Amino acid sequence: MGARALKSKDLFPAIFSRHAAAYQARLDQIMARGEARGRERVIELVAAKPGMRVLDLACGPATLSRRFATQVAPQGEVIGVDLAEGMIELARRAGIANARFEVMDIEGLAFADASFDAAACGHGLQFAPHLDRALREARRVLRDGSAFAASVPVTPVKESVWALLDSVTDRWLPPAPRALDQDRTRATAADAVALRAAALDAGFASARVEVVDERVVWESAEQLVSLCASWWDCAARLDGVDGDKRRGFIEDATATLQRGHSGAIETTGRNHVLFASA
C-alpha cells in the first residue's frame, strides 16, 4: 500500500500536535548541548535586544521563544505562532515571562504591518506549502530595517545510521503520509540561490543564505530510537501501530544500530540559514 497523500496543513499540524512532547524532549537536549547549530545561528543573527518585539514563526514548544524572551526583557515582548495546537499548548504551559503564543498560519499572520522589530523561524519554513506567502507575511509585519532569520534542514545525503534505521522502519511500519503541496517549497529551501531569491522577491531589501553544518551526539542506540517519534515522518508511521508491532520495531531498530554503532552515535546535518533585512 502506498503512502497517503494529504495537503500540508491537514498533515503536519496534527502530527506535530500528537508528538509535541517527544519533539520537545529531543530538541531541548540538543539545544542544551549547543548542537542545534542552525537554530543557534538564527538566534545569533536576530540579535534580539532589550525592549524589542520579536515574532517567532512556527515556534513549536517555544524553544527559540524562550531565548528571545530573556534577551528582550524586561520591557520587550515575544510572540510565538504555530499551526500545531499541541505545540502552542506546551509553549503556553512553560509560563515564559513577556511571551505569548497563538495558533496561527505563518502564511496569513493576524498582525498589523510593521509591528515587529525582528522575526525568526527555526526549522519551520519547509512545511509552508506556499513559501512565497510565508516570506511576504514575514516581511509585511516587520519594520523597515528589521532582521529576519530562518533555518531549514537540507541534509544532502543519507548517513549510514539513518540508512540503517530506515531499513528497519520500512520492514515494520507503513509508509509515511505524503504532503501533496510540498515539492516547490522543499526545492527552494534546498537551493541556497533560490532561497535568497525568494526572500528578495518577497520584498526584503537584502538577503543571504549561510550553509551551517551541525553534529549531534546521541548517547546510545537506545536513546536515538526512543526519540525517533519526534521526527515527523517516523511519528506519522508509528501512529496507529499496535503495541506489539511498536515494541518489535523499537527492539529491531535498537539491535540493528548497535551492531554498526557501539556506544555513542554521531550524526551530522546541514542547514540553510536565511538572513534577510526588511
**What kind of sheet is the major sheet?**
7 strands, mixed
Classified by CATH, the class is: Alpha Beta
The string of secondary-structure elements, in order, is EHHHEHEHEEHEHEHHEHHHE
| The CATH homology group name | Vaccinia Virus protein VP39
Number of E strands: 9
Give me the CATH fold name.
Rossmann fold
Radius of gyration, in Å, reads 19 Å
List low-pLDDT spans.
none
Mean pLDDT: 94
DSSP helix fraction: 40-55%
Quickly give the structural class: alpha/beta
Distance between the termini: 47 Å
CATH architecture: 3-Layer(aba) Sandwich
Number of discrete domains:
1
How would you concisely characterize the structure shown here?
Helix content is 45%, strand content 23%.
What's the arrangement of secondary structure elements?
Blueprint (H helix, E strand, L loop, with lengths): L4 E2 L1 H11 L1 H13 L4 H10 L6 E5 L5 H10 L4 E6 L2 H9 L5 E5 L12 E7 L8 H10 L1 E12 L6 H13 L5 E2 L3 H8 L1 H10 L4 E13 L2 H6 L5 H7 L4 H18 L4 E13 L1
Parallel strand pairs: 1-7, 2-3, 2-5, 3-4, 5-6
Antiparallel strand pairs: 6-9, 8-9
Task: Walk me through the structure.
- This protein is an alpha/beta fold and about 280 residues long.
- The chain has one domain: Vaccinia Virus protein VP39 (Rossmann fold).
- It is about 45% helix and about 25% strand.
- The protein is built from twelve helices and nine strands.
- The chain has a seven-stranded mixed sheet.
- Helix 7 (about 160-170) packs antiparallel against helix 12 and helix 8 (about 185-190) packs across helix 9.
- The radius of gyration is 19 Å and the shape is globular.
